[in-house]
Amino acid sequence: MKLTLAAFFIGTAVADQLASLGKYQVFEKLAVAPAPWIAKKDGHVDTDLSFKLRIHLKNQNIAAFHQKVFDVSTPNHVLYGRHLSRSEVNKILAPSPKGFVLVQEWLESHNLAQKSSVQNDWIVLEGTIGDAEKLLQTQYELFENTETGKVTARTLAYNIPASLHDYIDIIAPTTKFSTPSPHMSTIVKDYPAFDTKISASSPSDIHDGLDVVACNTTITPNCIKALYKFKHFRGSRRNGNEIALAGFLEEYAQHDDLATFLATYAPEANGSDFKTELINGGKNLQVSVNGTQNTGEANLDIQYGLALAYPTPTTYYSTGGRPPENTPYEVDNEPYLEFLTYLLALDKIPQVISISYGDTEWTVPEKYAHTVCNLFAQVAARGVSVFISSGDSGSGSNCSSIDPGKLQYTPDFPSTCPFVTSVGATFHVVPEVAVPFSGGGFSNYFPRPEYQDGVVDEYLSEHADPAFTKYYNTTGRAYPDISAQGVRFHLIVTGQDGQESGTSASAPTYAAVVALLNSDRISNGLPPFGFLNPWLYSRGADGHTDIVGGKGSGCRQVNGSGFAAVSGWDPVTGFGTPNFKELQDISTGDDSDES
Ligand SMILES: *[C@@H]1O[C@H](CO)[C@@H](O)[C@H](O)[C@H]1NC(C)=O
Ligand SMILES: *[C@@H]1O[C@H](CO)[C@@H](O)[C@H](O)[C@H]1NC(C)=O
Ligand SMILES: *[C@@H]1O[C@H](CO)[C@@H](O)[C@H](O)[C@H]1NC(C)=O
Ligand SMILES: *[C@@H]1O[C@H](CO)[C@@H](O)[C@H](O)[C@H]1NC(C)=O
Ligand SMILES: *[C@@H]1O[C@H](CO)[C@@H](O)[C@H](O)[C@H]1NC(C)=O
Ligand SMILES: *[C@@H]1O[C@H](CO)[C@@H](O)[C@H](O)[C@H]1NC(C)=O
Fold it and tell me: Across the 595 residues of the chain, what is the mean pLDDT of every consecutive 10-residue run?
């Protein structure tokens, strides 16, 4: 629900406080745009362009809130499984009322209160770029990404009144340049019809229902179900359990491709479909009605998410990030903020969400990353498991950092947020090994959460190659947490059978396994898992096949760099890949007398 700010503050006496807002002071400032962005010399920003400026008021009680999220997610804690409602979350985190009053005064002093609304802890100004420039005493400029050619309007520095500095943590879009990209690479498009795709090469190649020869090279839903041992489990469509796949950047999931995929590769789910929810002007155009769209990432997510979690009801969230006008440059690409605030405003959020997008951590401003991670913590508090692909460049194919002279592994955000579950990639089946592109590493922004202490210490002391520890932050949140297959997934794109690879395939695969485990829990009268990691790092680890072969790639500037998959947890495959039967036993307590 939207409330105009003016209405929200009826009756609040503010006039006498106007003077107290204080002088404008710099709030955020960058020396230069982060590489690969450069200022466009001949660029000109149209100040009449509509522009959505989001002002986030600092939450109160953040540390206590984080503790609460861990408590409700930690097995054996008295609060385990007692997830919070929307109003309970808001009550704990509510920003100081004084912050709202001051921001109101500030907007009124520029005659902008009528264009503003309150959305939870956000104040959203729907005005023009000119309005934002006036409010922030700055000028937006055009910047170009020299790798992708994308042009965006941002500023290198802006100011707000001194008295507001204590109450606001971020204002966006301002100094954040990066936008997340899909973690997917296309291996083969328009792949010719593949006769051997379902039938086995010979009966002796089938072990435990797994076609070891076919699944060793390309992946279908049957490969995953046999490999991860859930061929015979059937979840419920009617117990309230749900799974959702998140889409950004005009990636559109196709209904007719899904229908072909299911008929070909998942006949038991033939005829099922997904529901679409559109956020912030997002669309889900169908190629058949509107020419060529980007569908590779969205189709991969929806085809595997739906087929593997079948019959769990499935939603595709398409979040837009551009103004309605056909502008030649981006002004408003803040997909996580839009997506997460939308979710948090729902009374019921799907229990499992998979996100196959990410970005190099250092290109995301630190305060921004913390704000987004706190939103993920709120989603976690609500009893939702969020799975994020760990990235497709190993420890970072190009060592780089905000300091151009410094070589550093490049961790991926939001995998580095300690309130999400990060999913790495494997390939082959006999044995299943780490794939070199599988992203992993250590955050420079988020300290290591307690739930990781034991296993990550053990990795660092017993397995990490001391020659390379200087390239990463051993005190940071380590990822991925777990992994799943990620190479040569058959899928249907514009009617053709193709294959795609990436941790983009691994995230919906693992998410679907957890959706089915949730279905089993709910049908057994247990709450859904919610935030999975505290459970994973205590009980769940044993329900995985440890991956001990293969190595993640390192950066090209440092020979031999990168992390290897070793016994126990490692920053390439986490604890390994799921064994549904064992996870199911651990989850519903059938193993309780073993511990
Ligand atoms: C699976 O692929 C790997 C790597 O190519 C190979 O070493 C192994 O022998 C293959 N296994 C089977 C059963 O084809
Ligand atoms: C899938 O459903 C369609 C129409 O509902 C039907 O024509 C087709 O034969 C079915 N395919 C399979 C493999 O069940
Ligand atoms: C096709 O795309 C155009 C431009 O993006 C849009 O204006 C139009 O509404 C779309 N048509 C359909 C049927 O989705
Ligand atoms: C990799 O880093 C070097 C310098 O550190 C830079 O010149 C180059 O453009 C980067 N390449 C990519 C693909 O990021
Ligand atoms: C390493 O991580 C810690 C904890 O998150 C952080 O405080 C520190 O700034 C990081 N160091 C570097 C060099 O980024
Ligand atoms: C890295 O290895 C390549 C060949 O594999 C070699 O040419 C290069 O000199 C090595 N660089 C360093 C810094 O050792």
Answer: 45 49 92 88 86 94 98 96 96 95 94 93 94 96 88 94 95 88 68 44 81 93 98 95 93 95 97 96 81 83 98 96 62 82 95 94 91 97 98 90 87 97 96 96 98 98 96 98 97 92 97 98 97 98 98 94 97 98 92 43
pLDDT in the model for residue 340: 95
Cis omega before residue 323 (within 30°)?
A: no
Written as six digits, the tokens of 398 are: 């190009």
* Residue type for position 57: L
Q: How far is CA 569 from CA 418, 424, 429, 533, 579, in A?
A: 16, 12, 19, 13, 16
Q: Does 242 qualify as catalytic in the annotation?
A: no
The whole-angstrom separation of Cα 222 and Cα 228 is: 10
- Residue 398's pLDDT is 85
Q: For residues 341 and 120, give the distance between their C-alpha atoms in angstroms, rounded to a whole number.
A: 8
- Mapping DSSP onto H, E and C, the string for 250-286 reads CECCCHHHHHHHHHHHCHHHCCCCCEEEEECCCCCCC
For residue 186, what are its two tokens? 């296309």
State yes or no: is 443 an active-site residue.
Answer: no
pTM, entire model: 0.92
Quick one: tokens of 555?
A: 């950066």
Residue for token pair 């059937």: 234
| 208 has binding-site annotation | no
Which pair of tokens denotes residue 334? 């803040």
Question: Which ligand 5 atom is nearest residue 473's CA?
Answer: 1
Q: How far apart are CA 264 and CA 270, in angstroms?
A: 9
Indicate which residue of 297, 332, 334, 497 is catalytic. Answer: 297
Q: How many angstroms is it from 289 CA to the middle of ligand 4?
A: 40
* Residue 201, pLDDT score: 63
- Ligand 3 atom nearest 286 alpha carbon: 14
In the prediction, which pLDDT does 147 show?
A: 84
Strand partners, 118: 3, 123
What angle, 0 to 180 degrees and rounded to 10, lies between the N-to-C axes of helices 503-523 and 580-588?
40
CA 541 to CA 579: how far, in whole Å? 10
Instruction: List the one residue out of 101, 88, 117 whose CA is nearest residue 11.
Output: 101
Rounded CA-CA distance 232/519 in Å is: 14
Nearest CA to ligand 3 atom 3: 290
Ligand 4 atom 10: the closest Cα is on which residue? 398
Look at residues 374, 459, 456, 382 and name the one whose alpha carbon lies nearest to residue 417: 374
What pLDDT score does 327 carry?
Answer: 65
Crossing angle between the packed helical segments 335-345 and 366-381, to the nearest 10 degrees: 20
Q: What domains, with CATH codes, occur in the chain?
A: 3-59+95-177 (no CATH), 182-594 (3.40.50.200)
The residue whose CA is least distant from atom 12 of ligand 1 is: 213
504 in catalytic set: yes
- Cα 339 to the chain's mean position, in Å? 10
Q: 433 has which bridge partners?
A: 427
- Detail the DSSP E strand segments found in 470-529: 476-479, 482-485, 489-493, 496-501
Ligand 5 surroundings by CB, under 6 angstroms: 444, 446-447, 473, 475-476
Strand 210-211 with 206-207, pairing: antiparallel
148 lines ligand 2 (CB under 6 A): no
CA 481 to chain centre: 14
Retrieve residue 9's tokens. 């503050």
